Amino acid sequence: TRPPSLAAVGPGLPGPAHDPRIVGPSPAVGYFSPLGELAPGAAVRAGDVLGHVDVLGVRQAVVAPADGVLGGYLAESGEAVEYGQELVRLDAPGARA
Fold first, then answer.
1. Could you tell me if 49 and 61 are in contact, meaning their C-beta atoms sit under 8 angstroms apart?
2. Euclidean distance between CA atoms 97 and 29, whole angstroms
3. Mean pLDDT of 45-57
C-alpha cells in the first residue's frame, strides 16, 4: 500500500494513476507557516522543505513527499493544524492542472 504522505486528492478517483496530485501532511499539531519564497508553480523535489509547523516553539519541517510542482497551500499562515492534516498540494511533474 501507499504511504499516507502520498495520498491522492480529488473526488471519485482512486489514486495517482488517475489523479496526478499528491499532498504533504502536517508532521505534528501546531501552527503552520508556509515557506515565503515558494509560490504555486514552483518545482520541488522530494524532501524539500515547504514550510514549518510550530510546536511549542519548536519548528517541525513540512516536506515535499515527492517530486512535483507546488499546486498550492491548503492551510493559511498561522493556522492551527492537526497531525496528518493536508497542508500542501503538489502536482506531478508534467501534469496538467
1. yes
2. 30
3. 95
Q: Say if CB 31 and CB 80 are below 8 A apart.
A: yes
State the pTM of this model: 0.72
Whole-number pLDDT of residue 5: 41
> Helix, strand or coil for residue 95?
coil
What is the identity of the amino acid at 9? V
Q: DSSP for 75-89, please give it.
A: S-TT-EE-TT-EEEE
As a whole number, mean pLDDT of residues 57-76 equals: 94
Mean pLDDT of the chain: 82
- Residue 64: is its pLDDT beyond 50? yes
CB atoms within 10 A of CB 40: 13
List phi, psi (to 5°) of 4.
Answer: -60, -30
CA distances from 52 to 14, 24, 44, 60, 89 (A): 29, 12, 16, 5, 15
